């Protein structure tokens, strides 16, 4: 098509406008801390190669980030309308518990059978304002309980009663997943918008998102795309998404499983600070974490709730008294004397000069240990009670099954050793072999019966 000089002169302003628009979009793309939907290189190709100027218009309409960066203070509001900044910002707002002191979560006969595994008649009761630790080994049913409470799974039978609305519940799964091209700020802001948090102003929304990121320890990486986050940082990001809506009930599934020791300490301190202001349920197989922050505990094993109540009551009820005795002499004599005492349940050597003694009661040990040492005429270096902890109480609570496993292993070992010796001296050890085989069979029968 032959264009005259006048036509070209008339089109020159349009061409300059299009070129200016493309240059503006490219500069804006380079300077923008984040863009939406697509990575920056792809948006650059669309702006340059797309049907000019449709690619630039498409970027302005869809790709350009409209949220202010969390690191840049909002300058759009008038100074007269802005509230003076607080001297110290609290990421977790204070919450006054309601007058109703009934349980926030209560289940009755909760059952989900996966063909022998699952949950069976679980009755969970979570007091309002408590930090409830759900404890159990892997496969005990902790995640299934939390999933049924939150409505993400259905139970075969049973009932779940909640005294808070569904909109007041936030869940942080064990391994959260996010779109890798979003920044940490965008992920939390998206979570805020999805739960319908009121947005009174741009600055108020920005504050809630930055507060949640700061509480989770991600304030310095708010502009980074989450595709490059480690598993621990991703878990922190999931925690920030749960906090941004200021929930009444916060449910955390294995919240510290991917964190380093410093991160675990920070998160546990944050959870402990929520006690009395919101209700927290968190599952874990790390008993030390539960003891540090939980005032209520539920213990699951093989889909059944073995214990529920105060953490301290569990320690007081299911722990046997234990002492650590250090002797400047022969521990064998003292050990033999202690094993003859009726109040002693177990004596184990610890190193070369120490014994661990389990007894039936504190009073019996305080009276009996000095007597046993006096009989042996051995020099005592120290005698101190072993501090009670949740891990020891958990092992004590699950001891019957563990004892059967130990007996089975011990019987099998005796059986194998006796058979090996009989090969060397077959004429003398027939009776011992028969004894070992009898012990092996009896233990198998006991373990099978208890397994039912």
How would you describe this structure to a colleague?
By secondary structure, the protein is an alpha/beta fold. It has four domains: 14-63, no CATH class; 105-316, Rossmann fold (3-Layer(aba) Sandwich), CATH 3.40.50.300; 320-387, Alpha-Beta Plaits (2-Layer Sandwich); 398-451. The protein contains 15 helices and 14 strands. It has helices at 5-31, 40-49, 54-63, 142-150, 184-194, 202-215, 231-243, 261-273, 287-293, 311-318, 331-339, 362-376, 390-397, 399-424, 430-451; strands at 105-113, 118-122, 125-126, 131-135, 157-162, 169-172, 249-253, 279-284, 296-301, 304-310, 322-327, 344-350, 354-359, 380-385. The strands form three sheets. A six-stranded mixed β-sheet has the order 6-7-8-4-9-10, sandwiched between helices. Strands 1, 2, 3 and 5 form a four-stranded antiparallel β-sheet that branches. Strand 7, helix 8 (261-273) and strand 8 form a beta-alpha-beta unit. Helix 5 (184-194) runs parallel beside helix 7 (231-243), helix 11 packs across helix 12 (362-376) and helix 14 packs antiparallel against helix 15 (430-451). It starts with a helix and ends with a helix.
Give the structure's gist in a few sentences.
The protein is α/β, with parallel strands linked by helices and 452 residues long. It has helices at 5-31, 40-49, 54-63, 142-150, 184-194, 202-215, 231-243, 261-273, 287-293, 311-318, 331-339, 362-376, 390-397, 399-424, 430-451, and strands at residues 105-113, 118-122, 125-126, 131-135, 157-162, 169-172, 249-253, 279-284, 296-301, 304-310, 322-327, 344-350, 354-359, 380-385.
